[in-house]
Every structure is written in C-alpha cells, then in structure tokens.
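Budget justification note: compute hours in this period were largely spent on complex prediction jobs such as the one shown. Inputs:
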Amino acid sequence: MNRPKAWSADRPEREQALVGGARLIRLTQAEDMRGSLAAAELGKDLPFAPKRFFVVHGVPSAEVRGEHAHRECHQFMVCTSGSVTVLVDDGSDRAEVRLDDPSLGLYVPPMLWGTQYAYSSDAALAVLASHDYDPADYVRDYDVFVRLKRQDAE
Amino acid sequence: MNRPKAWSADRPEREQALVGGARLIRLTQAEDMRGSLAAAELGKDLPFAPKRFFVVHGVPSAEVRGEHAHRECHQFMVCTSGSVTVLVDDGSDRAEVRLDDPSLGLYVPPMLWGTQYAYSSDAALAVLASHDYDPADYVRDYDVFVRLKRQDAE
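Corresponding output:
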C-alpha cells in the first residue's frame, strides 16, 4: 500500500481527479447578500442518475463510517455543514480529502473502498446514490475487495 | 387568502399532504451508536427524477428566499442541519412548515408559490430539482401566479 496522496492545498476550480476514478467536483456557486447556493447539474457533472438520497448526521467524532466498497453503486457526496474526512482507496493507491464546504462534491465510482471519519459534531453528509439500498452490493472485507480489484485488472 | 394552515404538532410517520399537492415525507431512518442516516428512495418517494442538486446555506436569518413558483420544476427539500420555515401557497390556501430535522423532506410540485425564511445561522437546505436551472421556469410575480392558477382551474 502506498502512502495516501496528500490533498489539502489547492481546491479544484472545477474538478480534480483522485484515485480509481474518484473526482472532486467544484459545484457552481452563487453568493449574494441573501446567502449562498451551491449547485450540481446532475446530468452534466455526474455519470449516473440518482435513485437514492441520504443524509448522514449526528456522528460522534470518534466514529468511523463506511469501510466498504460498492460493487455497482456510484455515489456523490457533499458535506452540507461541518466537515468530514473521506479516504478513498482503489486497492493500491489512496487519497484523503477533507470535505468542509457545501460547494465541494466528491464523486465515488463503484469498486472503490471508502471510509469516512473525523466528523465534526455539526457535520451533515448528503449523498446521492445510483442504486436503491441493496446489502448484496456491499463489499465489507478489504481483502476480498483487493482480490476483486486484482481479478478485474487481469 | 385564507389563513395559513397550522402545521407544527404531530410530525408525519410517513407522509402528510399539505396544500396544492405539497407533501411532507418522513425519510427512512437508521440510528445507532455511529450516528444517524435518513434516506429517500427517489423512485418510490418522489414523482420525478432529479436532474439538479443544490444546497442553500449561510443565509442571514432576516433574509427571505424563494418567493416564486416554478412552471414545470418539481422540488424536494431537506434541511440537513439547522432549521428553516417554508411557506407553500397554491393561490388560495397556505401551509407553513418548520424543517428542522434531516429525516423530514418536503415535496413541492410545480405551480406552487414557495417562500423560505427564518433560516437558523447553521441551516443548510438541500434541494433536489427535476429540471436544470432555467430562468424562464420562474414565476416571480405573485399576482401573475394567482392568475395562472385561475386559468389552470378554468
């Protein structure tokens, strides 16, 4: 396993590739005296049509969530308040991002190992997913995940 | 104009009709030691496929947002942190709801006048919309809106 790629300095103006197809996407922003709006045109910004929307919130900061890959499900994550760190891992390389801005979205393709941690107490992570919930879509064992990735690569 | 229908006491277990086709929808909740998750299956819970996702945040509490109707665009709103009051108005009846819980979603059909106000300082309002942004889809004049509603009813 290589060391995680550092990602903290410059936020993407529009888009930044991470590992294994994951991408940070800068949402379109509109700011004025009445507040801020950050928007994603889903058909243009994402390679999937969302079927499910969920919000993760009230996570104790010591807790780690995720720690799985999806076989087929794509996800798009936006931390709408507070902050959370997301680690994505394609089986050989890793990238770590701090989502701390509602105008920053993270696209996570299928078959990428993902972990979320260091939730701030006020963090809310909004997620759009390409599939309905399906327990069979989860790969929860990291060794199995790495084996599947190697099989894919052969 | 009738007085707004009060809505504050009992939150819906699953769904509650408001005015003009607007509905409050209780999202599926999963809570454990690792935090809370609130989820909507978009194909089942909503009568539209989302094409746009946006987050409204950093709104000064004195500000009022919205104050328009959409001709064709459906919306689904979830206040992922903090709270905001939403007024929906079908031209003859009104309903007012306080969105203060990430497991509470508000479906707003087209041709319903909507206003959002009393944003808490930490409020983030996540919105799924059925259409890409289109200035021509907005009705920004309340009198025009009421006239269009009456034409529809004839």
